[in-house]
Amino acid sequence: MVNVGIIGAGRIGKVHTQGIITGVRAAKIKTVADPFMNEETEAWLKSWDENIKVTKDYKEILADESIDAVIICSSTNTHSPISIEAIKAGKHVFCEKPIDHDVEKIKEVIEALKDSKVKYQVGFNRRFDHNFKAVRDAVAAGKIGQPHIIKITSRDPEPPNPAYVAVSGGMFLDMTIHDFDMVRFLAGCDAEEVYVQSAVLVDKGIGEAGDVDTAVITLKMENGAIAVIDNSRKAVYGYDQRAEVFGSGGMVATKNDSLSTAVISNENGVTGEKPLYFFLERYMDSFRDEMNQFISAIENDTDTPLGVIDGLKPVLMGLAAKKSVEEHRPVKISEILI
Ligand SMILES: NC(=O)c1ccc[n+]([C@@H]2O[C@H](COP(=O)([O-])OP(=O)(O)OC[C@H]3O[C@@H](n4cnc5c(N)ncnc54)[C@H](O)[C@@H]3O)[C@@H](O)[C@H]2O)c1
Asked: Whose CA is nearest to atom 41 of ligand 1?
């Protein structure tokens, strides 16, 4: 049994709490920390397991010798400093995306992991989604030949509050970062160059906060494939999450998941269910599966499926995308590392 502490009891902290309790048999949540811990959150946690301890100070988790691993679900600006403290305390770390917006701070995490036996995994959960995993498996098995074109559609059902945009790092580092990881995953290699066309078409407030809400991003991949990601902060029909890889020997593509595949045909037309509403509905299984793999890596002393470098690369792509918008030109990933 691996004892874990959860740091941050907001949206994603609750997702991981629920996922571990309902589907990660080899892990036990001992403590949950959040500076804004209140009676409501405590009651919610205890409704899942009355033995969970709560605290406002994550340092209590780091000091608890019975805890083997931490799940960092706090606000993004805390990820890299808490990662480093946890690594130094000898705790295995699962860190939600992104590790940081600042490459130098991610490098500090990489440095802290050197000479350490700690396992480190980053929360790019979509790799564990049944649809995207099937696409990657088909590509890796050579079923579509050499990949030539990769297309990712990633549209949220509703935009975030513009106040959130200011602290989230903007669309490329908060939302598209999942798609940057997905492109690397599906292609099986890194991106060389990023070029963005973007606009504010959904919410003027997002533009006033200095961000964009609509984008088409093209990427040149190291294996020669060309990738395109299309993003919107608002799709009125729900969470649109699809991928396609076209290659020399064929094509593999996914559809959205919905509550049922029932299609109603009548005099008004032919209609089906909308896509599942948002990430909580669409990706719950993947959150559980990524955690099972993290815990399994600890128990079996194997590598985690997504390490710190997999956390760094999409941040570089996000920073390149921001630069592409600012300078209206294609940006090489190598320009960001300098
Ligand atoms: N993988 C995914 O699909 C996914 C989805 C949502 C959020 N996230 C990531 O998870 C992180 C949290 O997002 P959220 O939507 O849950 O935000 P949230 O605001 O709902 O929750 C964050 C929580 O962290 C707490 N917190 C802040 N500083 C802390 C500290 N020092 N110690 C402990 N807790 C602290 C806050 O009080 C808050 O309760 C973000 O980095 C976000 O990018 C990932």
From this structure: 76
Write phi, then psi, for 122 (nearest 5 degrees).
-105, 145
Does residue 308 form part of some domain? no
Q: Cα(78) to centroid of ligand 1, in Å? A: 9
- Residue 302 in any domain: the answer is no
What CATH number corresponds to the domain at position 87? 3.40.50.720
- Can you list the residues of the chain whose pLDDT is less than 70? 338
Within this chain, do residues 112 and 144 fall inside the same structural domain, yes or no?
no
Instruction: Say what the pLDDT of residue 118 is.
Output: 98
The Cα–Cα gap between 58 and 42 comes to 15
Between the CA of residue 241 and those of 232, 246, 288, 300, what are the distances in Å? Answer: 11, 17, 19, 33
Question: Where residue 169 sits, what CATH number does that domain have?
Answer: 3.30.360.10
User: Helices in 76-141 by DSSP H: which ranges?
Assistant: 79-88, 103-113, 130-140
Tens-digit pLDDT profile for residues 263-291: 999 999 999 999 999 999 999 999 999 99
Locate the ligand 1 atom nearest the alpha carbon of residue 79 and give its number. 41
Q: Are strands 250-253 and 240-247 parallel, antiparallel or unpaired?
A: antiparallel
Q: CA 92 → CA 31, 70, 85, distances in Å?
A: 15, 6, 11
Calculate how far, in angstroms, residue 301's C-alpha sits from the geometric centre of ligand 1. Answer: 28
Same domain, 110 and 182: no
Contact by Cβ (8 Å): 139, 252: yes
pTM over 0.85: yes
